[in-house]
Specification:
By secondary structure, the chain is of the alpha/beta class. Helix content is 38%, strand content 22%. It has two domains: 116 residues, Rossmann fold (3-Layer(aba) Sandwich); 96 residues, Winged helix-like DNA-binding domain superfamily/Winged helix DNA-binding domain (Arc Repressor Mutant, subunit A, Orthogonal Bundle), CATH 1.10.10.10. The longest helix is centred in the C-terminal third of the chain and has 15 residues.
């Protein structure tokens, strides 16, 4: 007997029980599988259990803002994020989109508009790759969701810039990430950061995670292009 096709899954992150119930009803009646989380930590735990096809994320959460959670998820999660908020100001929308959200919907909203935006985001994201939140390379363990790196069982202390570089490389593991991409993601496209500065941060990163920093095994330089994190 052929297996039933996998249902499209949506992770809904909102601390209001009524909103959770409403969105679950709206989505499940249209054939979606719904996973609920009431806090940022619950959302991260759900993501550790499996990757959804889309995340619906409220800006206001009890333990962490949706903006901060979105930024954290974006270090490994490539699926679309629909941000929800009662705030309708332009600055609020800009903050959400710059944190990594793909769309922004102001509460209250109609079921029709909500479903239309979900469908639109899913259409655009077909085939989008997602990197697992935990990557193991020999004795090195990179847990992006927990923002934790260990080497030989010992925790490695990385600066925010070093972790951002590593997270970007993990997200594009075994593929080349250009210096321009690194600058745009880690510092911002509007910032002026020269290659020498970026190489200093990469050198410091290698010293912390490579067994032989002078002859790196995982964080490799592609001359004249950028970096590549090899998992082989």
């Amino acid at each position: 007997m052929a297996e039933a096709p996998r249902r499209t899954s949506v992770l809904v992150v909102d601390d209001e029980i009524q909103i959770q119930r409403a969105m679950r009803t709206i989505l499940e009646t249209r054939g979606y599988e719904v996973v609920l989380a009431g806090t940022a930590q619950e959302a991260l735990d759900r993501l550790m259990d499996g990757t959804p096809d889309l995340v619906v994320l409220d800006v206001m959460l009890p333990d962490m803002s949706g903006i901060e959670l979105c930024e954290r998820m974006r270090t490994w999660l490539a699926v679309p994020v629909l941000m929800l908020s009662v705030r309708s100001g332009e600055c609020d929308k800009i903050d959400a989109l710059e944190s990594g959200a793909d769309d922004y919907l102001t509460k209250p909203f109609s079921a029709g508009e909500f479903v239309a935006r979900v469908k639109a985001l899913l259409r655009r994201s077909r085939g989008m790759p997602t990197t697992p939140p935990v990557l193991k390379l020999d004795g090195l363990i990179i847990d992006l969701s927990a923002r934790r790196v260990t080497r030989g069982g010992e925790e490695v202390s990385l600066t925010p810039i070093e972790f951002a570089i590593l997270g970007l490389l993990v997200q594009h593991a075994d593929r080349v990430v250009t210096w321009d991409q690194i600058r745009d993601v880690v510092w911002g496209a509007e910032c002026i950061v020269d290659a020498a500065t970026m190489r200093v941060h990469v050198s410091n990163l290698r010293k912390k995670i490579e067994s032989h920093p002078a002859v790196p095994r995982h964080v490799l330089t592609e001359p004249g292009v950028g970096l590549r994190l090899t998992t082989r």
